[in-house]
């Protein structure tokens, strides 16, 4: 039979159990949730940061970035010149080159000139061996003297025959024979005079003279060589000269660029050998036929003021110029890069940026100056204009600005 524990014993047991209890709430009271689960909170923070980055990238991708330049208005009253087209060409002369060749065969006896020497019209250039031609002149003169003597004799006979015929001493037949001899002598004299003139001309051909003022460019043969007229092209040429008073430059222009060139248009010529030297010029000739194979037209510009640096056949750069003038006297002149102008069915326009949004603005273009174009209507100056790719732009769309490109 069991006996119930005494009250004192129960109190002792309850105290022992209380001393062995661990108070969890007190042990964990000083620890934060982050310390209790450190890995979990790190993962959550990384996910939040990644989501924020993705959101920023998506937002940036939806707003296009554009390159812009500022429209700058030049001060009014002063026209602006610029290059509209450039091409490589050569220096030529107005009369091209004059090749002087022989008209009669002969051995070259001497030159009277040297390369680079200036000559005037009529100055002697080359002498051929003229002994054969002098002999021909002398022979023609001797034959003419003989014919003149015969003519004098036969005309005297004719006068006597006419007197005798009037007195019925000689017959009509004898008179006719005397008349015929005198007529033949007169014809012979005329023929020999022509032969003498021809012999003198051929003698004169043995000395080549300058046909006009100019400068000797080259001597084609040496003293002692035999020169003959005709034959292959240039075979009989002895002297090459040019008139350097009328200096020009020529260049081939593509058909697609011909609308940029007009007669009388200003230009400038820059020699490859002297890139710091610039010569004012103007368009004086547009050749009448296009080269079908190359699709080009030859254009000549005249250089009114030149110096000794400019030589025939020299390689040069030819810049064709145009002048942009204000739409009204005294008004500003506005030039923009060609890249900002766009074209569609509604006409010419530009994209401007206003308060971070794209705006389409219709404009009217004017004179083209190389990579710049005059705008006569639509802009005031100071606008931010979009250059480059604008396919993602639409009216009122938000944009981000890339660093501005300096206006040139």
Structural commentary:
By secondary structure, the chain is an alpha+beta fold. It folds into four domains: 65-78 and 327-401, conserved putative lor/sdh protein from methanococcus maripaludis s2 fold (Beta Barrel); 84-94 and 246-324, Elongation Factor Tu (Ef-tu), domain 3; 101-128 and 207-244, OB fold (Dihydrolipoamide Acetyltransferase, E2P) (Beta Barrel), CATH 2.40.50; 130-205, Helix hairpin bin (Helix Hairpins, Orthogonal Bundle). The chain has helices spanning 7-20, 24-28, 33-36, 38-62, 131-166, 172-205, and strands at 65-70, 72-74, 80-93, 98-101, 106-111, 118-119, 124-128, 207-209, 214-219, 226-227, 237-242, 247-254, 266-271, 279-286, 296-303, 315-324, 333-337, 342-344, 347-354, 357-362, 364-369, 372-377, 384-387, 400-401. Helix 5 (131-166) packs antiparallel against helix 6 (172-205). The relative contact order is 0.17.
Give a brief rundown of this model.
The protein is α+β, with helices and mostly antiparallel strands and 408 residues long.
Tally of DSSP β-strands: 24
Strand order of the largest sheet: 3-12-15-14-13-16
How would you name the CATH homologous superfamily of the largest domain?
A: Efflux pump adaptor protein, beta barrel domain
Poorly predicted spans: 26-31, 55-60
List keywords for this structure.
4 domains; four-stranded antiparallel sheet; about 35% strand; 24 strands; alpha+beta; about 400 residues; six-stranded antiparallel β-barrel; Elongation Factor Tu (Ef-tu), domain 3; 6 helices; OB fold (Dihydrolipoamide Acetyltransferase, E2P); conserved putative lor/sdh protein from methanococcus maripaludis s2 fold
